[in-house]
Amino acid sequence: MSSGRPKKIKLSNGSYMPLLGQGTFNLKVATSGRSQEILEEAIDAGYRHLDTASVYQTEVDVGKAVRSKIQQGVVKREDMFIVSKLWCRYFAPEAIPVSLDKSLSDLQLDYVDLYLVHFPVGLQDVGDELFPKKDGKILTTDFDYVDVWKGMEALKATGKVKSIGVSNFSIPQLERLLSVAKVPPVVNQVELHPYLVQSDLIKYCKSKNIALTAYCPFGSPDKPKELHTGETDPEKLLEDPVVGEIAAKHKRTPAQVLLRYHIEQDIAVIPKGINSAQIQENIKVFDFSLDEEDMRALKSLNRGWRGAHFEDMKTHRFYPF
Questions:
Q1: Has 16 been annotated as catalytic?
Q2: Measuring CA to CA, which residue among 37, 17, 18 is closest to residue 275?
Q3: pLDDT at 5
Q4: With contact defined as beta carbons under 8 Å apart, do 153 and 96 qualify?
Q5: Which of the residue ranges 86-90, 133-137, 280-284 would you say has the lowest mean pLDDT?
């Protein structure tokens, strides 16, 4: 691709989603509280897709950054593609619209472009913890994601969300959801990188016209220590010699190669740039291509290694991994 401008993909409902976005998980910590500033820099640099979630606690900063750039005349609201997610505590039918309204209020927006079910397992809405626990055990619920989806469809009908989708859903879960959905999910946002290739999931989603967004494209090297998964953690993906060789061949950085890997597959990707250099580096992925040999070499690194396990929910019947 010769153009250096970020490309978009068409979703099954006719909307367009920019292939490159800025992620915001753990952004406050990673930027020492400078997330609004970094997000404003991202918009200035050309990012139009910002990914947040109520559980990330970055919606307020995303809202302030977008508002600031609209006021400065840098962007219009319709230029931006804002994604947020329904957290697992808010799966009760009456909680779903309330959760969206809170997100919209924090974001200072009338609508979000894409609203996702964050994870298929419900959690009890008790106390102040994002992951409520009792005696060290996570407090899950039996809310069925199929019923949650009905609540998502109702949100779409209000116009407060332009598109609806899911995150961390497996093939059997998507099959079950599609068999009853009046409005099919347009996106499944999942962890994808050369250590977790997930070819079957990619093939399935493409066959059903469900777009994919890749999170943890670098294997999540800066995630909090308590989320570390030991020997099989993909955190050193950026240092992999195969990635390094391909980067040298194209005179690019390993990060740019790992982002381009998704773009070659028409998969959206949401790296988290945490400083000016990374914001600039991550967006410069539309003026070079990886050839078939590069893609084969990257896919051959597959080890099934996940950075985000949601380990606490493993015993639940809707745990997707």
A1: no
A2: 37
A3: 66
A4: no
A5: 133-137
Question: Which candidate in 56, 145, 195, 319 is catalytic?
Answer: 56
Q: What is the pTM of this model?
A: 0.96
How far is Cα 221 from Cα 191, in angstroms, rounded to an integer? 13
β-bridge pairing 114-117 and 133-134: unpaired
Say if residues 196 and 305 touch (Cβ distance below 8 Å). yes
SS (H, E, C) the chain: CCCCCCCEEECCCCCEEECECEECCCHHHHCCCCHHHHHHHHHHHCCCEEECCHHHCCHHHHHHHHHHHHHCCCCCHHHCEEEEEECHHHCCCCHHHHHHHHHHHHHCCCCECEEEECCCCCECCCCCCCCCEECCEECECCCCHHHHHHHHHHHHHHCCECCEEEECCCHHHHHHHHHHCCCCCCEEEEECECCECCHHHHHHHHHCCCEEEEECCCCCCCCCHHHCCHHHCHHHHHHCHHHHHHHHHHCCCHHHHHHHHHHCCCCEECCCCCCHHHHHHHHCCCCCCCCHHHHHHHHCCCCCCCCCCCHHHCCCCCCCC
Grade residue 128 by pLDDT with cuts at 50, 70 and 90. Answer: confident
Residues 219-243: tens digit of each pLDDT: 988 777 777 778 888 889 999 999 9
